[in-house]
Amino acid sequence: MSFEKYYEVFKAYSDIYSEEYKKRLETLEPLLLKHMPERGKVLDLACGVGGFSFLLEDLGFEVVGLDYSPSMIRKAREFARDKRSKVEFVEGDAKNLPFRENSFDYVLFIDSLVHFEPKELNQIFREIARVLKPGGRFILQFTDLRELLPVLMNGQVVGAEYWISRVLIDKDEKTVVIEFQSEEDTFRVRFNIWGKTAVELLAKLYFKEIHSEKINEHSYFQIYIPKSKSGLEAKPSHNELPVE
Ligand SMILES: C[S@@+](CC[C@H](N)C(=O)[O-])C[C@H]1O[C@@H](n2cnc3c(N)ncnc32)[C@H](O)[C@@H]1O
């Protein structure tokens, strides 16, 4: 059970030239343009294969993309070579960012919450607040999986070849295992269940919300700025990469 197969199968996350990926870019581009008024340095956190990094580079931002998965970073670098992009792609962990405090004007965190348990997301939010400049913006897009689950339980077709054959929610309703099936094979992925209220409560510890918008039935786009940074931990990590 892993995300590898899921990302391999669903081109919306693994092929920046696919229609599904382009649709995600087209949906978010106007919102990003509106809420990123000044050009500056961007961390595309959990960047995957880098589509949003390239979009922001094309719009004039200086972008670093970071992802935990070596294969995602490898693909992002291949796309970067193909596009003659200058985006720097770093393999790393969102829970322990290899950047100094106050390094970025924007941190983008798109469609990635399902990977993380509450304790992990807490660490990540703290790290985002640490690396953002005072007044910098944290841009979060996520799907409310709690709202979406009843829809998924109807055995929807998801993508061209796969349909959902089973949805197994744990008794605490913290995680869900979704089984995807095609004519050829079956695989399962465990997702962490995040609802909007829980995300907002956690974010409140570190950020002030300045914008919240529903972008389709179950997906949200939120903008935050770090609260006063004085009370936050700002420990430099030993494996820091300098960001000029
Ligand atoms: C659904 S993909 C989204 C990728 C990208 N933001 C996008 O919208 O195309 C989620 C990404 O989170 C990455 N990820 C999971 N755990 C991570 C961690 N601890 N640190 C950084 N990235 C992580 C995965 O490797 C995956 O590329």
TrEMBL record:
Q: Name one GO biological process term.
A: methylation
Query: Which residues are in the Methyltransferase domain?
Result: 42-136
Is Ligase set as a keyword in this record? no
Keyword Transit peptide appears in the UniProt entry: no
Highest taxon, organism lineage? Archaea
What Gene3D superfamilies is this protein classified in?
Vaccinia Virus protein VP39 (3.40.50.150)
UniProt-recorded Gene Ontology molecular function terms: methyltransferase activity
Entry keywords, A to Z: Methyltransferase, Transferase
This one is known as: Methyltransferase
What species is given as this protein's source? Thermococcus gorgonarius
